[in-house]
């Protein structure tokens, strides 16, 4: 079992989730945080089963993820 950093965004019409460190587009969605997280985990499993180990961006691994806001 691998651990993934997953971004979960809250929008006015629900939640969207996507992993960091995978090649390709993998997205989950749901009405709640938990639904979006469950959906993206299922999408990650499907993505790996479909495309194999080549989907991993191994070097360098993502150690932490941050969200920052800045006015420009």
From TrEMBL:
<dbReference type="InterPro" id="IPR035069">
    <property type="entry name" value="TTHA1013/TTHA0281-like"/>
</dbReference>
<protein>
    <recommendedName>
        <fullName>Type II toxin-antitoxin system HicB family antitoxin</fullName>
    </recommendedName>
</protein>
């Amino acid at each position: 079992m691998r651990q993934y950093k997953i971004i979960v965004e809250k929008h006015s019409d629900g939640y969207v989730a996507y992993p960091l460190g995978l090649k390709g587009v993998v997205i989950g969605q749901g009405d709640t945080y938990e639904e979006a997280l469950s959906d993206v985990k299922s999408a990650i499993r499907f993505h790996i089963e479909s495309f194999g180990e080549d989907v991993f961006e191994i070097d360098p691994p993502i150690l932490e993820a941050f969200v920052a806001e800045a006015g420009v």
